Amino acid sequence: MGQRPQDADARRAVPPVICYPNETLPAVDIPLYLAALEGATLVSSHLAAPRDATHFHVKAGQFFRISCVDGPQVGDLNLWNVHDLSERFYSGKTRALHGTHVSEGERLWSSFPYLRPMATIVQDSLAWYGMDAFGGSVHDVIGTRCDPYTGMLLSGDTYHYCCHSNITRALADATGMSLHEAEPHVHDVLNVFMCTGFTRDTGQYFMKASPVRAGDTLVMLAEIDLLGVLSACPGGDCSSEHSSDVAQCYPLQVDVLEPAAGALDGWQSPAPNAYDRTHGR
User: Fold this and answer.
1) Given 98, 127, 134, 208, which residue has the most CB atoms within 10 angstroms?
2) Domain boundaries in the chain?
3) Model confidence over 170-222: pLDDT tens digits?
């Protein structure tokens, strides 16, 4: 361990600076979105069975609503540009722009070189939760997804119904790709309804029992044409463990909703990032 310098306290007392001040991000017209949502009609419904995943398509300008329909359950969400799977949800940049957890008025951003909003959170029935005394909050963009490789690494177990594998199977079903072709497209997730944070002493990622209950929803506007996959995590409410058949698990539902004609007048699907990609040459 390094020797403590005489000015250690002064060094630690330096105040932090926000890396990406987000006041200049494109404005979100939440009143417009909410008004459009009010009169939106159901297009399709998709059920993610416990320890499995479902896939769905959402056109730009449609809403999708993720619902807890039975008991407390968290889900792992992947999003892609349906026309180009290389444009996908970028959890790291979303975290850098908005913070470790996201809620109403915040956006899910896409990968480089596109870096544009893929979806905007319009309604969150768990927005009341905020940040608890442990540093936990809901809908995180810090966890990666439960996967069979980490399970094998830590315990030597083979488990096929973790979120990574669930998403892989659902993406293969949605696209006609083989599992081996689909898997490289699976990416870090939005942990829907999951309550997580970092421990104060060791900085370790933690989970705790989700506050989600039957009837809770997370509603987003698709900013571009999307292919989505949602996995109902094998951890249930993630109060004790994940990637097992022990936890009580429940389904999650995704509803796609179409706003009435003219309800989003003035809204435009965002263009890809304007950077010219010359990289200094």
Assistant:
1) 98
2) 28-222+231-258
3) 999 999 999 999 999 999 999 999 999 999 999 999 999 999 999 999 999 99
